[in-house]
Amino acid sequence: MKKIISGNEAIALSFEDSGGVFASGYPGTPSTETLEEVARLGNVYCEWAPNEKVGLESAIGASLAGGRSLATMKHVGVNVAADALMTLTYTGVNAGLILMAADDPGMHSSQNEQDSRNYAKFAKIPMLDPADSQEAYDFVRAGFEISEQFDTPVMLRTTTRISHAKGIVEPKGKIEPKVGAWEKNVPKYVMLPNFGKIKHVTVEERLLKLQEFAETSPLNRVEMGDTDLGIVTSGISYQHVKEAFPAASILKLGLVHPLPEKKIREFAGKVKRLMVVEEMDAIFEEQIRAMGIPVHIGKDRISLCGEVSADIVRAAAGAPITAAATAPVENLPQRPPTFCPGCAHRGLYSILSKLKVYVSGDIGCYTLGALPPLSAMHTCICMGASISAAHGMAKVNEIAGRAEKPVAVIGDSTFFHSGITGLLSMAYNNGSALVIIMDNRTTGMTGGQENPGSGQILQGEPAKQVNMVDLVKVLGIDNVVEINSYNLEETEAAIRKGLETPGPYVLVDRNPCILRYRVKKPLYAVDQDKCTGCRACLKASCVALGLTSSGEKPKVGIDPNICNGCGVCAQLCKFDAMSEA
Amino acid sequence: MNVFNIVIAGVGGQGVLMASKVLAESALASGMDVKQNEVHGMAQRGGSVISFVRIGDKVYSPVVMPGSADILISFEPLEALRYVHYLKPGGMLVYNKGTINPSTVASGLATYPADVEEQISRACGGAHGIDALAIAQQAGNAKAVNMVMVGSVLKKLPIDAQVVEGVVSALSKDKGVEVNLKALRGGGAAA
Ligand SMILES: Cc1ncc(C[n+]2csc(CCOP(=O)(O)OP(=O)(O)O)c2C)c(N)n1
């Protein structure tokens, strides 16, 4: 039966329909819903790994044990898993293995815009690039077949508009999962230099065979039309091309690595002008040019940054773009994402902001503390970097004779992902920073996924729950203190103590995520007679707060439909104007 | 039929996604091709949300280009203004009059435009504002604002209203069916 589902849901469904046995991954927009959907469908084993490397390695083990496996992650997750990937390409697989990497051109919710197609080239493995939900479904099946036929991991690359956009999917027949043999094969799976040398040759030979396959595979198809303009494209860009030039000739690539050289040459020979439309890097264009085939329109006209659109394709080819009825209205107040009303991160950041300390940040909801008016985060690079970077800062501060101690802020999921090793280094190398772990018992930013501290697994069933304080202690940290960041006075005192005490000092806030755990507290209200309009409370940056009057010193009110009773604004008020309603 | 473009705008948590789902499922149930797309991830954190529903014989891109929306439904006035340039000439705009402060306004960094409705009328002559919260509350649940908004444009859609009602019933749980259908019809009456 036809359904309307997202690319992520289609991948999950096809994984189940294509004999999938094991799936693992780590949340990351726009990949997250894939594993959630595998769990919701409920017929194939799946789990959250603490990070992408563990996820891929577990999928490797599953493949070696004979089960078709899937590892899911966002584009930057591939960096974390890359160590495994770069040698997995040598060993190859037993049962089929797909690594799903979800790119985020336009950076809707990511810290960079890296193009995962580079990884397919780098690892010398095949990559599939679906153009809609139906192809996402079809390419999982094709991916397993290619993986097993060519003894290689296969990358399935999506972008945000493939992962999240919904389209109509017609599922194919179901393949019953079967588990193959679990064999010992030392030269194939033990990558000592002597075996690795042999396998490297195999990898290069495999790539040539895959290139032959790409020439004839229906995954790459030519849609001949008007021969004035011929466009080579793939993935979501194909849809934008069809919108812009429905009559043009198109070479649509589904297998985007390795490229079918003969097919491209033949196509280029039939059209007057060759255009390459690809989001982000010039991966196709550079390779096509290196084949000695002239590209008339490419990255000289289409940016390396951001998403492609139908109008961008039109403009690049010199065609008129869509005329709007009105111009965009300018200077509107921005509506950026912000801490939820009642979020525990708010109290912490109002103190960090007040103390004006240097905050080495990390990735999660708490990164929003970098935005005004809190403006209390000064670096955010990648998951886990807060602690290790703070350690480096502290060492240089020591060398420079600067007394100030850096503060690292990190969430529970991020700490499990890659913060533990940073803290281990700080303890081992005699470092000195204040580390604040915001243990809200969930992976908040990506929608509240379970992690080793939640006490639940992906399916929601009870699981072992790591004790954060014990974990920190065992790494060699002597000073670990639990805080309650809803209490500003106590938290400020704890932070001050941590800053004054030499050596590593860890604070752990264990208030749960109010969104994930649906925490409801008594609401607050403002006594309009007591409010002086000083706006100290507005520093909490809470959307429940708003001005109730106009004029010179407007007063503040709390919207009872939005307030979640955290009481942070009431503690910021110097006139006792706010209390439980 | 050419492709019919719907843009739904609002604030994270208002139910924009559910409204989009209702329209997309209704198109599928009517035998049409459909693509639906919104960018989420950070959307839940009170940010601005925009969702596209494109329906027709054959739909390629899931993205609506600025200047090509047949209908813009906005759950909040400021968001109507933010995305009004998505309308094509002659496109229709229906918005919910209830305002929600962005964090920039709540923290005193910006002011909510007092003349937001006049600005909307200036940008789109035929724009129509409704009090979706009141209608939703009348129907029995303040959260049904999204169904009110869907109801408000039903007559303009190339989809049969009965199909939409069927989809809403199928997607709602128990008591929600009645509330949502009331909200849908209330929205239709207010349009
Ligand atoms: C390598 C990598 N994987 C995944 C992500 C996506 N991601 C962003 S924040 C985050 C986790 C946030 O959880 P947590 O640290 O518990 O903080 P919270 O959001 O709950 O405050 C994830 C998985 C990423 N940015 N980088």
TrEMBL record, chain A:
GO molecular function, one term: thiamine pyrophosphate binding
Top EC category: oxidoreductase
GO BP annotation list: small molecule metabolic process
Enzyme nomenclature, EC number: 1.2.7.8
Binding site for [4Fe-4S] cluster 2: C542, C563, C566, C569
Domain 4Fe-4S ferredoxin-type: 522-552, 554-581
Binding annotation for [4Fe-4S] cluster 1: C531, C534, C537, C573
UniProt keywords, alphabetically: 4Fe-4S, Electron transport, Iron, Iron-sulfur, Metal-binding, Oxidoreductase, Transport
Annotated CDD domains: TPP_IOR_alpha, TPP_PYR_PFOR_IOR-alpha_like
Cofactor section: [4Fe-4S] cluster
UniProt remark on cofactor binding: Binds 2 [4Fe-4S] clusters. In this family the first cluster has a non-standard and varying [4Fe-4S] binding motif CX(2)CX(2)CX(4-5)CP.
Gene3D superfamilies associated with the record: 3.30.70.20, 3.40.50.920, 3.40.50.970
InterPro entries per UniProt: 4Fe4S_Fe-S-bd (IPR017896), HACL1-like (IPR045025), IorA (IPR017721), Pyrv_Fd/Flavodoxin_OxRdtase_N (IPR002880), THDP-binding (IPR029061), TPP_enzyme_TPP-bd (IPR011766), Transketo_C/PFOR_II (IPR009014)
Pfam families: Fer4, POR_N, TPP_enzyme_C
Catalytic activity: indole-3-pyruvate + 2 oxidized [2Fe-2S]-[ferredoxin] + CoA = (indol-3-yl)acetyl-CoA + 2 reduced [2Fe-2S]-[ferredoxin] + CO2 + H(+)
Function according to Swiss-Prot or TrEMBL: Catalyzes the ferredoxin-dependent oxidative decarboxylation of arylpyruvates.
Quaternary structure (record): Heterodimer of the IorA and IorB subunits.
Official protein name in the record: Indolepyruvate oxidoreductase subunit IorA
Source organism of this protein record: Geobacter hydrogenophilus
The organism's taxonomic lineage, starting at the top: Bacteria, Pseudomonadati, Thermodesulfobacteriota, Desulfuromonadia, Geobacterales
From TrEMBL, chain B:
InterPro entries in UniProt: IorB_Oxidoreductase, Pyrv/ketoisovalerate_OxRed_cat, Pyrv_flavodox_OxRed_cen
Keywords: Oxidoreductase
SUPFAM superfamilies: Pyruvate-ferredoxin oxidoreductase, PFOR, domain III
GO molecular function: oxidoreductase activity, acting on the aldehyde or oxo group of donors
UniProt entry tagged with the keyword Lipid metabolism: no
One Pfam family in the UniProt entry: POR
Domain Pyruvate/ketoisovalerate oxidoreductase catalytic, chain residue ranges per copy: 12-187
Protein name: Indolepyruvate oxidoreductase
Natural source organism: Geobacter hydrogenophilus
